[in-house]
Design brief:
alpha+beta, Jelly Rolls, five-stranded antiparallel β-sheet, 19% helix
């Protein structure tokens, strides 16, 4: 009897651990298309009635179109997540197309709710991610057309087009809504701003330097 109790407890523990590490909740029906008219707010989105679901709820058009990279970073992300495809709700996946101008950068950022796997479609990219404290080890690689690289969930990562031609990559993520936190924007462009005293001490620079950086955001 004691052994059976132990096995049951171990099974329940393993199930709870699996649920805790999953990026998105598991699906309990065929699909759960977002009900955009609902005022209910949950961890995710409420489902609309299955009889009202149509093929367009699972469809997105235009990922073949290059994004406009005429910005300071020289890159643009075209997301295909639950905001674009209502049928992705509860399915735990999403996509993004990233376009890079020559010497364009997808700046250091994190996805708090998803692991990313990146495939280079055109051009070459220098990519990498940094592990958490205290090691902060950089794992970096030069990718060419057809190469694939993985960025673990929540870790800071980047992609840089070091070439003289445009580059394109396709990213898949393990969440319907992985989120994105661009490090520089979050630190120097918060609203209201983080105190100069805090940032000057954190980055070991003077307040004037912080002011100049914040002015860019």
């Amino acid at each position: 009897m004691a052994s059976h109790t132990f096995l049951l407890a171990a099974a329940l523990l393993s199930l709870s651990c699996f649920h805790a590490i999953a990026s998105d909740p598991s699906l309990l029906q065929d699909f759960c298309v977002v009900d955009k008219m609902s005022t209910v707010r949950v961890n995710g989105f409420p489902c609309k009635d299955a009889k009202d679901v149509v093929a367009e709820d699972f469809f997105f058009q235009g990922l073949h179109i290059a994004g406009n990279t005429t910005n300071k970073q020289g890159s643009i992300v075209t997301p295909v997540n639950v905001a674009q495809i209502a049928g992705l709700n509860t399915l735990g996946i999403s996509l993004a197309r990233i376009d890079y101008a020559p010497y364009g950068l997808n700046p250091p950022h994190t996805h708090p709710r998803g692991t990313e796997i990146l495939t280079v479609l055109e051009g070459s990219l220098y990519v990498g991610f940094v592990t958490s404290n205290p090691d902060n080890k950089l794992f970096a690689k030069v990718l060419n057309k057809g190469d694939v690289f993985v960025f673990p969930e929540g870790l800071i990562h980047f992609q840089f087009n070091y070439g003289t031609k445009s580059a394109v990559a396709l990213a898949a993520l393990s969440s319907q809504n992985p989120g994105v936190i661009t490090v520089a924007n979050a630190v120097f462009g918060s609203k209201p701003s983080i105190s100069d005293d805090v940032l000057a001490k954190a980055f070991q620079v003077d307040k004037q330097t912080i002011d100049r950086i914040q002015a860019q955001f």
